[in-house]
Protein 1
Amino acid sequence: MPTAAALPDLREWLLEHHGDTVDADRLPAIRTELERIGADDVPGAVVELGCYQGAMALWMRAVLDATGQQQRPIHVYDSFQGLPERGEKDPELFEPGFLRAEPQQVLALHDRWGCTPPVVHPGWFAETLPGQLPDQIAFAYLDGDYYDSIRTCLAACIPRMAPGGALIVDDYADLRANPRAWNGLPGVKAACDDHFGTPSTLEVLMGAGDLAFGRYIAPALPAGRVER
Ligand SMILES: C[S@@+](CC[C@H](N)C(=O)[O-])C[C@H]1O[C@@H](n2cnc3c(N)ncnc32)[C@H](O)[C@@H]1O
């Protein structure tokens, strides 16, 4: 199980071997969110919607373990058939089936680093969500790339967010708030706009490069009300 001292090594290794999906902005941004749910004692699981080969899932496990959150489960979801057909709001960037991975790759990656593997839920989001989601979510990372995928994930996850929990949408490019954001997958922001309404309630996170992260924080319970 990695300690805080091992995180820099893991970071370097992930950047070298999984730089197609994780980068020097995403890793610290996700770490910050996980440290906060630990410090604030936000109840619930961590979920990743669109896990591909499991690089970010591994980082999340390592950060949780290094911050005293060994008991917090991680659930990951993916078609393991790659991307679906794009919708009309998605660009002609990738072929269907691009980013195909195997559940075994996720498990092997965790094994390599001595980490407890996540609970893996193979299947299209429309089939696995919301039924296979944990009842309460402390942190959700949505990385499904396409309009329909993100809408399905938002509809399933938002009602399950614990008070004070955080949900990050990757590839959310709000160019007015962050002109540097990578805007290669505009269906992602369109899905958020249609879910939350405009102007969007998502907070834009900035990085040193072209990070495109939108963050939703679930409202705290009204004073005096206790979550059951
Ligand atoms: C960019 S990759 C995820 C990368 C991963 N989060 C990481 O950081 O390493 C996007 C993934 O979303 C999955 N995906 C997209 N739409 C999906 C859907 N509707 N149902 C299930 N998986 C989907 C794809 O199979 C792909 O593996």
Note: Residues 21-22, 48, 50-52, 55-56, 78-79, 82-84, 99, 101, 124-125, 143-146, 149 surround S-adenosylmethionine (CB under 6 Å).
Protein 2
Amino acid sequence: MARIRFDQVTKRYGGVVAVDRLDLEIRDKEFLVLLGPSGCGKSTTLNMIAGLEDLSDGDLYFDDEIVNVMPPHRRDVAMVFQSYALYPHKSVRDNIAFGLKMRRLPADEIAARVGEAAERLEIAHLLDRRPHQLSGGQRQRVALGRAMVRRPAVFLMDEPLSNLDAALRITMRAEIKQLHRTMGTTFVYVTHDQAEALTLADRIVVMKDGVVQQIGTPDEIYERPRNLFVASFLGNPPINLIEGRLNRDGGGLGFQRDGATIRLSSRVAAGIAAHADRPITLGIRPEDVQDRAVQADDCVVTGAVKSVLPVGSDQYLGIAFADRELFFRIGKNFRHGLGETVTLALDPARLHWFDPATAAALEP
Ligand SMILES: Nc1ncnc2c1ncn2[C@@H]1O[C@H](COP(=O)(O)OP(=O)(O)OP(=O)(O)O)[C@@H](O)[C@H]1O
Ligand SMILES: [Mg+2]
């Protein structure tokens, strides 16, 4: 059992507030990802769980016990770092066994646990090598093995894949996910890579400048971002964010910017009418266009094609809209040349509206 709870936790370094009044409950056996740009306080948060950093304020609980000042070795946690932190002069076997030897486990128990972890991670044939005789991916497995053999209640990982090349990173992601499934322990995983967060997490905590922006499942965070920061941090290529205004357009409402208009369906217009005649920001993810002919009561964007970027089965179309270029992902069959004016039907259920003054999402 390993529930972790932050209650109004703040961490300051001198005048820098690295983590600001964090409230967070990490559930038993959950895979929780801390996501955000460099310097937002992810590692600081993880290090407080590990006991490597003191809290400046607030309380940290493991289950129902306050652990604010509990030393690292008494916490039932194991950590995997970006740098792997392997001992260069020790064999793979001794690297994996190190923590268990320190804890004076019997030799046969150590051998059994190391053997089992090595099998699982498919590094059994490498046990007599030194770290410098391994590839990056193999070193990362050794670091994972070292954490696994301790059988901790909580697994902490700080950007464990960022030193690997893109292909290996994707393979290792799948392995870490699998590891979580079979180990049945709580994982807390730090990354600045939104794609990694979306694939791995049960829930994601998005942070910025030490402040939590949103906590939710990958779907919630991606589909219902609570503010402009979260909307723009997730998704690649990023969401199209357009500042403009809702104005009367014929009988209905249109979203306008510098004379360019996105026509809204009657249903969408009814939902957002309360925000008419004020500045508003519209967000449209590139994939949220409909791959079909435009119909009468659709939400539509019209503009000249500025760029075409093929991506395998699909293509990205850059469409001119006022002073902006909006990007949409659409099937290859949709063929239009540069400069040609096209009209695309937008997915009405997936338009995102924000208040530009507060950056907060507007409830439809
Ligand atoms: N030991 C320290 N002394 C002073 N300031 C620190 C210290 N450690 C971290 N900070 C500051 O605290 C803030 C949060 O740092 P943290 O390492 O938690 O960020 P991070 O989200 O892990 O970033 P990255 O993605 O770059 O690893 C940053 O502004 C950082 O400069
Ligand atoms: Mg960090």
Note: Residues 13, 16, 18, 36, 38-44, 192 surround adenosine-5'-triphosphate (ligand 1) (CB under 6 Å).
Protein 3
Amino acid sequence: MSETEIRDPGAFETRLSHFLFERSEEARAVRVGEKEVSEQAEVVARYSDLFTRAQLEALAEAEHQAKTADASADEVERLYRLRKTCEGGIVAAELAEREDALENEILAARVVWKNEEMSLRTAQARTAVLDTYADRDELGELQADESARFNSKQLALITAAETLEAELSGQPDPIKRSEEEKALSLRELESALAVVSERLDERWSELRERWFDRLLGSGRDDLPRQHQVAYMRRLSPLASTYTRERATEVCLDTLGRLGFDLMAMPNIRLDLDDRPQKSPRACVIASDPPQVVHLITRAQGGLHDYEALLHEAGHALHYGGCDPALPYAFRSLSRDHALTEIYSYISAKIVNEPGWHEHYFSLPEKTARENAEAGLFIEVMLFRRYVAKLQFELEFWGRFAHEGGSEKGYAEHQLAATGVRYRPDWFLSDMDSGFYSADYLRAWIRSAQLRASLLEEVGEDWWQSAKTGDFLRSLFAEGTRPSNEEIAARLGFEPLDCAPLLAELGA
Ligand SMILES: [Zn+2]
């Protein structure tokens, strides 16, 4: 096929699936530490024929024709996703070499702490498990200093991507562009969430004082630095109960009670090994759903391992459970991540159930309740942190066109929401593209609605009932087709009804 040949949507979709498979497998190899050098640019170059302006125009034309010919909503949506993927591919292709170069520089960066040289990822992973408060601050600062050295390059890349996206989409306003993709108002979402966050003020200050003291000790700063968060999040002092060794077995059994036998699903490939360059953040890479789905975690000890494994298992079961007969666009492509995060959230919520702690760790009822509250403490902290992230990102992108990207307001929002001092220059490390924070928050609202509905339909035992599994399986089968907000309607809620979320977090 010549370089200039333009594909029809069906042929584009097929070749796209091959490209995304190879790209996902490459990203996986780097992420898990099998490869030290990222070669995304090489994969992108091999498929450069997919991502041309001429191809983008052809897809836009096909979408326009489908609309005027009154094609089904599914068909129009499928073409929309193909066009937006092509658009994103052009941006990625044009920036791939610079992205690779920056990622490789970051991978090669080292900090030296107590005579030991380590990568930034290892330093980050280590900070979370150091036993001494001062050590965590010290190594955390070293790691953050070194990360901040890459800020100007990172900002230059973000700016280049933004300029290209504005040009290709014809929408110069990054907030409006995101709103069109997500099909909702980000500011309305923010307003609804700000109310929830505010109504949790009292509950949060009580949880915060109790758990900051318990987890960080009485000698802590009133307002601890950001380097203490990952350590708290692991609930490391509870690590003797929630051991690294048992994490896999307990989580697999938990899912088994819902009717999901992960070991018997060859399409979900588990990678639970410990490797020095493996990112400490758990993730799922769905290379070709439902046939090839990777579930990757790096257990370090503590309740967080269990929560992270259950969270990622929710994604894996979603992608691995979609109907193979769906078009590729509805198995693998989505407008955003807000749908799949509902399923990871509902799965991870199991660690907030006292009964789960009693059952697996033979704890007396009172201890089980306390430890489940620890899970809730983390969830309220993260929820408020994400509302603050969304608020900062709306400000960041709102002023981006006339001011460029700046850190203004980042640390202030985080401090007010969490009582933790974040470094202003951490703002880029803390920001994912495309308002991912909003997707998490939509999933927070929806998974609380889902749990409320399961409590109603299945009962208190929802977290260990095969009926829950059956209901989830029927949702998974639809793949990535529905929007997060469409699930609200299935559950009988309005999209922005935050009452279940407030009830759950304020409990
Ligand atoms: Zn997730």
Note: Residues 311, 315, 341, 344 surround zinc ion (CB under 6 Å).
